[in-house]
Amino acid sequence: MTSADSPRPHTMLAAVYDTPGPAQNLRLTDEVSVPFALSDEVLVRVHASALNPIDTKTRAGRGVASGIVRYPALIGSDFAGVVVRAPYEAHPLQPGTEVYGMLPVPRVSGSYAQYVAAPSLSIAPKPDNLSFTEAAAVPLAAMTAWGALDAAEIESGQRVLIHAGAGGVGHFAVQLAALRGAHVIATGSAHNLDFLRELGAAEVIDYTARNFEDGLAPVDAVIDLIGNVHANTGSRSLGVIVEGGVIVNVPSGSWPEFAAEAEAAGVRGTHYKVSPDARVLEQITALIESDQLRVVLADTYPLERIVEAHEALEAGHTRGKIAISIP
Ligand SMILES: NC(=O)c1ccc[n+]([C@@H]2O[C@H](COP(=O)([O-])OP(=O)(O)OC[C@H]3O[C@@H](n4cnc5c(N)ncnc54)[C@H](OP(=O)(O)O)[C@@H]3O)[C@@H](O)[C@H]2O)c1
After folding, report:
1. For domain 2-138+295-325, which CATH number applies: 2.130.10.10, 1.10.287.70, 3.90.180.10, 3.40.50.300?
2. Ligand 1 near 167 CB (within 6 A)
3. CA 14 to centroid of ligand 1, rounded, Å
4. Cα(16) to centroid of ligand 1, in Å?
5. Residue 273: CB within 6 Å of ligand 1?
6. Can you give the residue ranges of every domain in the chain?
7. Whole-number Å distance between alpha carbons of 115 and 118
8. Hey, whose CA ends up nearest to atom 21 of ligand 1?
9. Does residue 188's CB lie within 6 angstroms of at least one atom of ligand 1?
10. What is the pLDDT of residues 81-116, one digit of tens each?
């Protein structure tokens, strides 16, 4: 195994929570053990992390909370930082390499912390043109957008409706669908319509001013980032899809009847769940470095303001992403 020259501490600063509940349950402690990298894992000194709704949902006792068996629990998936320990001498991610990636969706480890141990196949070199905070905001959301478009088999010329196009996943999905040559229709509230156009949406719909389906010509696919959590957005989407078209329901929790309703509507319905995948991340890196894809940060909070950061994301109207700087 190879490691950087500087000695590493045994404990680190991290955000933890002792019991599921509101954002105020998050606290900082410097008594968390630095994770030990096993097998093909890479140890990374984290400089920035980012929030995703799975973090806030799980902290609140929903999301994947049932998979968390030990408290206090760490939290967070996204990270950007510098490799301090590689699995072996010839490994491509040697100490000193600036990287970004996502931890598998949480069981016990988390990235709101000074170190993470992550499988090699979940990490890629950081895009040269991004800061650590910008880079940390990319992996989970961009790979979700990529995977959802793949699941929908989006092709050039297709009409694609993307709900919540201004959010973390949505702002990547709009750009990536436009890059694939799709005709992108995105929903958002009035203050985000220009933003959606800048990302590449050909049509924008203010969902607060009218029903999105009113006057909308049929679409080949829907990337549903809302489900039925708001005004039956998911169910209503089935009515705008051409026969044999597809809907990808990304937040699965709010719409248990999804599969049956999609089948009844003559539509192919599928969920999508993101997995860390360095090969996808490397393709995302190439698009970012060639200025074809950008990440938008709504805010960056220092780790000590993690409670405020969670409350901001939970308000449900983040434009782009919220990043966390790690001391
Ligand atoms: N299955 C998976 O692997 C996976 C992965 C990532 C995310 N997810 C899920 O996907 C969902 C989206 O994630 P995210 O990170 O993109 O969330 P996010 O960043 O919190 O989304 C915020 C955006 O949602 C928009 N929005 C809120 N209500 C809306 C509505 N009724 N119609 C249209 N837009 C609306 C807001 O725009 P306005 O301010 O303009 O309203 C805001 O820009 C979450 O439920 C998340 O848990 C699942």
Report:
1. 3.90.180.10
2. yes
3. 26
4. 24
5. yes
6. 2-138+295-325, 141-271
7. 10
8. 167
9. yes
10. 999 999 999 999 999 999 999 998 766 689 999 999
Q: 246 CB less than 6 Å from ligand 1? A: no
Superfamily of segment(s) 141-271: NAD(P)-binding Rossmann-like Domain (3.40.50.720)
d(CA 173, CA 183): 12
Distance from residue 319's CA to the centre of ligand 1 (Å): 10
Tell me if 274 CB under 6 Å of ligand 1: yes
Q: What would the pLDDT profile of 127-136 be if each residue is shown by its tens digit? A: 999 999 999 9
Find out whether the beta carbon of 319 lies less than 6 Å from any atom of ligand 1.
Answer: yes
Structure confidence at residue 69 (pLDDT): 87
